[in-house]
Amino acid sequence: MTAPHGSWPSPFTAQMIAQASPRIDGARFVGDEIWWGESVPAEGGRVTVRSSSGAEVLPLPWNARSRVHEYGGGAWTAGDDGTLYFVNGADQRVHRMPRGGVPEPLTEAGPAFGGLRLQRGRLLAVREDLRPEQHLRAIVEIPLDGSAADDESAVRTLVSTSGFVAHPALSPDGERLAWVQWSTVRMPWEQALLHVAPVGGDEIESTRTHAALQPEWVSDDELLHLDDPSGRWNLRRLRLGETSTGFAAADADTGGPLWVLGTRWYQPLDDGRVVAVRTNGADQIVQISPDGESVELLTLPITAEASVDDARGSKVLISGAGRTVGAGLWCVDLDDGTITTVTGGAEADARWVPRARPVTFDGPHGPVHAFDYPPTNPDATAPDGELPPYIVMVHGGPTAHVSGAASTAYAYWTSRGVGVLDVNYGGSTGYGRAYRERLDGQWGIVDVDDVIAAARGMADAGLADPARIAIRGGSAGGWTVLCALVRGGAFSAGISRYGVADLRMLAAETHDFEAHYLEGLVGPLPEAERVYIERSPLSHADRIDVPVLLQQGSEDRVVPPSQSEAIRDALEARGVPHEYLLFEGEGHGFRAASSIIASLEAELRFLGRTFGFPVAP
């Protein structure tokens, strides 16, 4: 059939998108089984734990979710005997659940826990205690006998700091602890130190690092870790008492921004081999020999969102997504080459789900990298000469990354005849430190210049209708949306999801983890207050003259509702077409199926109304 772009009949409903490709949240070998965490949108975004035996290990109403650093991560682990340890989202207490049993608390209410690691029968965690009389973070050992459930002093503090900590790792003999630590005034990708100390001792040995990540012991006196002194996160080897040296250097990143705890970019095997993620735009999985030679695992379909979750013998668990497959979990046997799909990873139908095309545009600050998802529908074409509308997607962070994976969420648009351009603007990871640091002091300038350059590049190439390009982003991406609309001239509509509107308001209201983030992105206060005012979209809301859809979670503690509501009020005062949707009970990002459905359907109606294409019921 021939129909205008945007009105093509599509099998992808908002309900389907809400249920598709649940997020994989860690995986482990447990006895003869494989366990993994998985989000359940139909249950309010609860994270459950499932088993390769077909059982749901963690039943309702329990939710394995950490709030440490607000973004959480590492909310569960398990022992070989089938005992599950998890942080319950409702109260942030660590619980133990024997196989076939019921959860029992291991910690008191009050602090939050995350980054759980069960090593040699000892349960380590990152504890965040933001009560006024405490306000400390620590690496702790939680007794497994339940003695700390009613006695907080029974939790053994191994490291305590007013800064931030992550990645606790015990040496094989249990005598030393390695971890990553950074101060409250720096973000971990700006500067993070690798520390080693005797367990229970005070002699901390600090290694000079730029942005250390994920220490892993390979013997009692030697460990691997990640750092980026060359401008790329690469593996390094450290023998205690000596200087850290490079291991298997590559012009790609093994590592990324430490937004969540528990992320694993590599796993060492007992025989000295290492399996690692390498990112240069897209992800690849490589096997590295003990002498540093590497070979890509070409038969593995993962190219995005990769995590090397666990290793046992010659087998490795790797989660992620790819250009041809949805999110999933795979078990790879490095010895015999077999690859087993544990969950997810369904092959995407190329007739309906477009393959992401890496593209690069010339921008005022250098090259701008992106992934293009063109309109794709086997049963529909547009009238001759009609160019498609496009949505420019802007990721959050802003220190984050997109890698071009098959996406039913994007197929929701492309199957209807609306193209999607996913932009890794300056400041994104995955292209080295220089690209990441392009945004230093320039947030609201470089990111905006880059998304505008990408949009104009698509229009100049005759791939997008220049009069029908929208911009959509959440959190820091929402900030870029609003800043781009203030700049004007490139976008005909904007969708901001829990976006930043006023920098001074954000500096006053945001949470501890990002309390000083703006100093690197914009400048210190009060010295740079004039810059904060000048850069903020709220200061120039009178320049926004295109329709805007604002979406916000009522319980968002990272970017509170006051930000979206301030922009809403400014648009209302000037009569600019806009909508404001407040999702009750949602935080920073929408997890419940009902919220995802309502959000997508509202966006489709909004763009149909703005760009003049009919929206099917």
UniProtKB/TrEMBL annotation:
One of its GO terms (biological process) is proteolysis. Transmembrane segments: none annotated. GO terms for molecular function: serine-type peptidase activity. InterPro entries: 6-blade_b-propeller_TolB-like (IPR011042), AB_hydrolase_fold (IPR029058), Peptidase_S9_cat (IPR001375), Xaa-Pro_dipeptidyl-ppase/CocE (IPR050585). It holds the Pfam family Peptidase_S9. Residues 410-612 form the Peptidase S9 prolyl oligopeptidase catalytic domain. PANTHER family: PEPTIDASE S9 PROLYL OLIGOPEPTIDASE, PEPTIDASE S9 PROLYL OLIGOPEPTIDASE CATALYTIC DOMAIN-CONTAINING PROTEIN. This is S9 family peptidase.
